[in-house]
Amino acid sequence: MSSRKIAKSNLCSLWMKTLGHLVVLSSLNPWVSAYSERERVHDLMSRYPLIDGHNDLALQLRILHNNRLSQVDLHNVSKVATDITRLQAGHVQAQVFAVYVLCGAQEKDAVRLTLEQIDVVRRMCTEYQDFELVTSAQELKNSAMRHKIACLISIEGGHSIDSSLPALRMFYQLGVRSMALTHTCNTPWAESSSKLYKVYQRHNNSLTHFGEAVVEEMNRLGMIVDLSHTSWDTARAVLGHSKAPVIFSHSSSFSICNHSRNVPDWLLKELRKKQGLIMVNLHSKFISCKDDANISRVADHFDHIRNVIGAQSIGIGGDFEGAVSFPQGLEDVSKYPALIQELLQRNWTENDLADILRRNFLRVFEEVERVSEELSAHLPSEVQIPDKEVQNPCRLDLRHPSRKRPPSDQSPSSKAQQRPTGLLTQAVVLLISSLLLMD
Ligand SMILES: *[C@@H]1O[C@H](CO)[C@@H](O)[C@H](O)[C@H]1NC(C)=O
Ligand SMILES: *[C@@H]1O[C@H](CO)[C@@H](O)[C@H](O)[C@H]1NC(C)=O
Ligand SMILES: *[C@@H]1O[C@H](CO)[C@@H](O)[C@H](O)[C@H]1NC(C)=O
Ligand SMILES: *[C@@H]1O[C@H](CO)[C@@H](O)[C@H](O)[C@H]1NC(C)=O
Ligand SMILES: *[C@@H]1O[C@H](CO)[C@@H](O)[C@H](O)[C@H]1NC(C)=O
Ligand SMILES: [Zn+2]
């Protein structure tokens, strides 16, 4: 018998003993098996740390601190569910940060407000060593090796580009790598799942000619098209038009909870055909259609979607900071391991879990980049939205440069008189929307 064989057989008997002990221990004490299960989850999530599809921390920085980053320590932020300490505890290695501005800003200063949200995410992700701003799949993977939390920037709502492809391109230059085509308002070119704002309503035209041009330009640039918040008709039209896979960054299953923000099975199947991704939203309202929910119900969404289109089409888009109620046991970003543990208990394989934690998102991102590469010979699109399709009084009419402008010598006092009402309205809108509209 060679020495190697002896070593091997010794190792074998050691294993058998250990296993024997484990079996005895776990039958004696249920805590042991629970403990080893948690260990297994942490081991799995260390190897495949989460890429989360949606987080609204930037919105909370606006609401709570008016974007004064110096007022907070991002390692430990009270009143929110997201900070560096908890992201690390939850094995979140990459976070898509939404830059979101109220629908009320459409036709007003949506572009400025969006720039300010991009600024605050960029500051967050460059001033803190634990974060790293990334703009490609490769950079995302590199940041994992450096044990950094990668930040991706995503615009939440097409109203942010004010129907302008040059504005879209400049947002790309600032690092934006995905955009949800709508939030709770229609844009002049795409339709929302919400009927809250009665703007740009139209029949049987859920993605206009200009809307198609937006999708084409996003394909050319290499920006991920996000269909969360769009109407199903718009989602179907985009799936028919996009050359690259698309995602729902934070939506769940309509069959499990019939909320209009969730995705019905027929649409999931269309998404699958395009190799797209649905990143399941954890907000209780979309999980159980009520204000309270539990992890088991969340897992029902995962099980159902896997049955319909397979684990390769699923990701996780927590929606923390964008919604008010989360399931028991999933109250903040440190709790993701509890969800993975529930799925392991439901016999999801480690392979499936590695897919939903990160590999699916990376595959989609890389495919979006590949399509962009393929389109690199195309020039930037010069499609412009027809004037009659935007009813935006803030747009200067450039065709009449010689036209006399209305007198602008308002006295300082008349300006001052206007200000309090404006601020009050803004504050009320902010308050209402933070209570009602966020998701
Ligand atoms: C975070 O700050 C709170 C007080 O603001 C403190 O009680 C808590 O221990 C801190 N947590 C960590 C992880 O530093
Ligand atoms: C919607 O428009 C398409 C083509 O533009 C047409 O084929 C279809 O019948 C229309 N549907 C309705 C409900 O009007
Ligand atoms: C969801 O289901 C409930 C009960 O079946 C029904 O009353 C409600 O109208 C449905 N909502 C939607 C958006 O389909
Ligand atoms: C979780 O919530 C569902 C309803 O959404 C309920 O039927 C179920 O019993 C709950 N499970 C646990 C373990 O509490
Ligand atoms: C998981 O698999 C085990 C062993 O095959 C089986 O006993 C158990 O019922 C399964 N659990 C679920 C939730 O499918
Ligand atoms: Zn949202």
- Binned, the helix content reads 40-55%
Averaged pLDDT, please?
89
Q: Number of folding domains? A: 1
Name of the top-level CATH class: Alpha Beta
Radius of gyration, CA atoms, in whole angstroms: 24 Å
Low-confidence stretches: 1-12, 22-26, 409-436
What oligomeric assembly is this protein in? single chain
The CATH architecture name reads: Alpha-Beta Barrel
Bound molecules: 2-acetamido-2-deoxy-beta-D-glucopyranose, zinc ion
The count of strands amounts to: 9
- The CATH topology label is TIM Barrel
Class from helix and strand fractions: alpha/beta
Please trace the helix and strand order, writing H or E for each element.
Answer: HHEHHEHEHEHEHEHEHEHHEHHH
The share of residues in extended strands comes to 5-15%
Q: So what's the overall shape?
A: globular
**CATH superfamily heading:** Metal-dependent hydrolases
Separate helix tally:
15
Main pleated sheet: 6 strands, parallel
In short:
With 439 residues, this protein is an alpha/beta fold. The protein is 47% helix and 10% strand. The protein has helices spanning 3-28, 30-47, 57-65, 84-89, 110-127, 137-145, 165-173, 209-221, 232-241, 265-273, 284-287, 295-309, 336-345, 350-374, 412-436, and strands at residues 50-55, 92-99, 131-133, 149-156, 176-180, 224-226, 247-248, 277-280, 314-316.
Keywords:
15 helices; binds zinc ion; 10% strand; alpha/beta; disordered N terminus; 6-stranded parallel sheet; 439 residues; binds 2-acetamido-2-deoxy-beta-D-glucopyranose
